[in-house]
Amino acid sequence: MEIAADEPRFFEVEPLDGESLSHFLGRFRRENYLTSTQLGKLTGLGAVILRWEKLYFNPFPTRQELEALSSVVGINADRLMEMLPSQGMTMKPRPIRLCAACYAESPCHRVEWQLKDKIRCDGYAGQRHRHNLRLLIKCTNCETPFPIPADWVQGECSHCFLPFPTMAKRQKRD
Ligand SMILES: [Zn+2]
Ligand SMILES: [Zn+2]
What we know:
- It comes from Anabaena lutea FACHB-196.
- By secondary structure, this protein is mainly α.
- It has helices spanning 21-31, 36-43, 48-53, 63-73, 77-81, 100-105.
């Protein structure tokens, strides 16, 4: 395989099952020491990157935009598309939701948690048990709302530092 010497190379980040675009962008940026402004410049997408990190997908990302992102992150546009709500699904960007039990198994924010009428977690493909737990919208200890997924660095509350997996104990199964 030929590698063009003048092309900037980046560390690739493998997407996780069901991961939202916001969460993936945060991981990619941190792995490559990039701010969202820098990633905006590199992709030519500008402030669109920050909008996506905030889960604002209106107007919906175009194929062309996803191709531009793809050329930098090294993940093909079809796979990036899977990180977005599927066609016809309405997404609610706030509040940011979390299934702490899912997070304990695979540490990422899932795009399906933000679907408009989503109240509980149905689990995901490849998971052994469905949790059927109510999704959380704030820290179970101090009630601080969750930050945008791009900022989930350690997977803990940004205020009291309670780890997300620990919050599963307080998730309701009703
Ligand atoms: Zn779950
Ligand atoms: Zn907290």
